[in-house]
Structure formats: structure tokens, C-alpha cells
Amino acid sequence: MVGVPAPLTIENIRDAPKVLLHDHLDGGLRPATVVELADAIDYRSLPTRDPDELAGWFLGAAHSGSLERYLETFGHTVAVMQTAEALRRVATECAEDLAADGVVYAEVRFAPELHVERDLDLDQVVETVLEGFRTGAERAAAAGRPIRIGCLLTAMRHAARSREIAELAVRYRDVGVVGFDIAGAEKGYPPTRHLDAFEYVRQQNAHVTIHAGEAFGLPSIWEAIQWCGADRLGHGVRIVDDIAVGSDKTAKLGRLAAYVRDTRIPLEMCPTSNVHTGAAPSLADHPIGLLAKLRFRVTVNTDNRLMSGCSMTSEMAALAETFGYGWVDLGWFTVNAMKSAFIGFDERLALINEVIKPAYAALQA
Predict the structure, then answer these.
(1) What's the Cα-to-Cα distance from 277 to each of 44, 99, 100, 188, 354, rounded to whole Å?
(2) CA atoms within 13 A of residue 84's CA, in its CB half-sphere
(3) Beta-strand (E) ranges in the chain?
(4) Can you tell me the distance from the alpha carbon of 209 to that of 24, in angstroms, rounded to the nearest whole number?
(5) Cα separation, 224 vs 233, whole angstroms
(6) Angle CA(219)–CA(221)–CA(224) in degrees, nearest 5?
(7) What is the distance between the alpha carbons of residues 202 and 199, in angstroms, rounded to a whole number?
């Protein structure tokens, strides 16, 4: 007898296993934590000290249609993440919050160079964040919500410390760091400015993901892949500029789009954030619909949970409502992400076969 699929409720989506590849540590703080950390260091620049009002302020400021304006909101979160205590707490809460949202594997990124304004050096910053992730994962497991967290170290596009951060990523790759990234405003700061960092990471057989094709177009994507050797594309929404859709709805892929699809380069898509930064006009018009239909290696991500007021559950639910997706589709996004993770093959396969596929099969029954 064929069973009835579970309804696509928020509760069921939250309970389903999810995989997150693109989430910023300094973009996911609890509003109350921001206030308490600000009080601890006498940081007086917050627009409000009420957690609910602060959450609304972040969302309103981020929903500007400008990536540059969106990035300005990080001035407050980074400012309160300058001590070991603060970094450890934020990382611990991050792991707990993601696990409570049903995330079974996450890669959380942050830029160590942004957290050395007080007495910490780069190594201490990384070690403290990794300690926080371990503590959060242990608490989540004790609560019956196991999660595995890998850390991505990000260098800032406009700065000149990318080689140093790349070496840091390689140095800590056996204790929790799984890859290297660059982030920041794309326009005027092409990834090729950091070729020595990318060459070093590849020579060390380590992994690279690059923010590309979010606020800037195809040249950013092309450079990230062909010059810098990106294993994944952070966002990558502008790959749609290389796809022509005819009046009969058939799609013709340009050479770059065809290369990205043919070689299965994962796209770390962040729908709500992309709408907020102006990378997509609306969720209904987000390229994820077309790219998923064309079977690109699409993954679903949060980007910045505080700034965009989102979670993996809300992202999946919004996509299901907007595009009519069901459990098969949500499971496909999840397997795509797990296949694309920067951990070892055996570990990825175990999570796919022992956790993800059985759970979605049960939901479809």
C-alpha cells in the first residue's frame, strides 16, 4: 500500500535533515547576544538595545537592494566579536541554532582578519571559533540534534592578507577548517588579485569556494573558475546571464554556463539574501528556479541569518511555496549540498545514505 506524503509544514521541514554550505558566522548572531556582547565591551553604536527592535533594524537595513549597504550592517556584529569569550559564544550558539533548525551538516565561514582589533592573533581567533563549534555540536548532540560543522576561512577581497589566511586555512585543516574563501564587494576587487593565495591552497590539495556572480556578472564567475580554481561558487546567480530562454521556453546555454553545469560546479545559492542585495528582483524571479530545472548543481543556503531574517527551514519553505517544490525537490537540494561539501568522501556518503536519503524517503512515503 502506497503511503501518503507528509505535509510540507514548517515543523516537518524543520525536522527534515538539511545541509548548509554558505553561512556567515558574523551574519548569524542572535539579536540578544549582540546586545549583551555590546554591553560587555561598552560598545555604544547599536541603533537600539532592544533585541526585537534590533532584529528588525538589521532586516530593514539589509533589505536595501545594495550589496554594499547590506555589508555595512556587519560593522556592528564584527565590533562585538573581538574577544575570545565573544567568539566562543557566537560559534557555540551558531552550532546550537543550526542543529535546532534541522541542519545535520554545515560549513560556516568567517574572516579571521576582522577579529584582531583587540588582543587576539589570527591563530587564537581560529582556535577559539573551532572550540565554540565543538562545544555547540556537543550540546546539540546531547539534545538529540547531532550536527557536523566544518569551518571556512575567508579573506577580504579589498585587503592584502589573503595568502596569510590561505596558509591559516591549510594549517588548521585537520582540526575543523575545511576550505578557503574570499568575500566582500566584488566590483573593483576581482578574485585574480589573490592568485597567490588560490595557487597555494590548490598546491596543498585543499578546497576553495569564492564569492562570485552575486553583485557582479559573468567575468567574476569566469575568473573564479578558470583563474582561481574554485571548487564551488558562492552565490553564482549571474550565471543566468549566460542562458538564453526562447519564446518556446527552451534554454540555450552559453559556453560558461554549459561548463559550470557539465563539470557540476556547485552553486551556493542564497535566495532571500539575493533578493535583499538586489542580486535577484524577487524570489519568484530568482534564477534558482531556472537553474534547478536545468539541473545545475544547485544548493540552498542562508548566507546571513540575522541580516536576512531567515533560516534553512524558512528558505526551503519559501522555495516550496514559490516554485511548487515537494519533498523530492527538497531532498535533491540537500543531496546536492552534501555531495558538494568539503569533507571526505566516506563521511559525505555516510550522511547521504544513512541520514538524508532515508529521512526524505520516509517523508515521501
Answers:
(1) 27, 27, 27, 17, 37
(2) 9
(3) 18-24, 103-110, 148-156, 177-183, 208-212, 232-235, 243-245, 251-253, 267-269, 298-300
(4) 13
(5) 8
(6) 105
(7) 5
Give catalytic residues, as residue numbers.
Answer: 214
Please state whether beta strands 177-183 and 148-156 pair in parallel, antiparallel, or not at all (unpaired): parallel
Q: How far is CA 226 from CA 49, 211, 220, in A?
A: 46, 14, 10
Tens digit of each residue's pLDDT (9 = 90 or more) over 260-308: 999 999 999 999 999 998 889 999 999 999 999 999 999 999 999 999 9
Q: What is the DSSP letter of 181?
A: E
| Secondary structure element (H or E) that encloses residue 217, with its range | none
Q: Binding site for substrate, residues?
A: 24, 26, 184
pLDDT of residue 168: 98
Domains of the chain: 10-364 (3.20.20.140)
CA distances from 351 to 216, 269, 347 (A): 34, 21, 6
pTM over 0.85: yes
150-167: per-residue pLDDT in tens? 999 999 998 899 999 999
| pLDDT category of residue 1 using cuts at 50, 70 and 90 | very low
Task: Report how far residue 304's alpha carbon sits from residue 61's, in angstroms, rounded to the nearest whole number.
Answer: 13
The SS3 assignment for 208 reads: strand
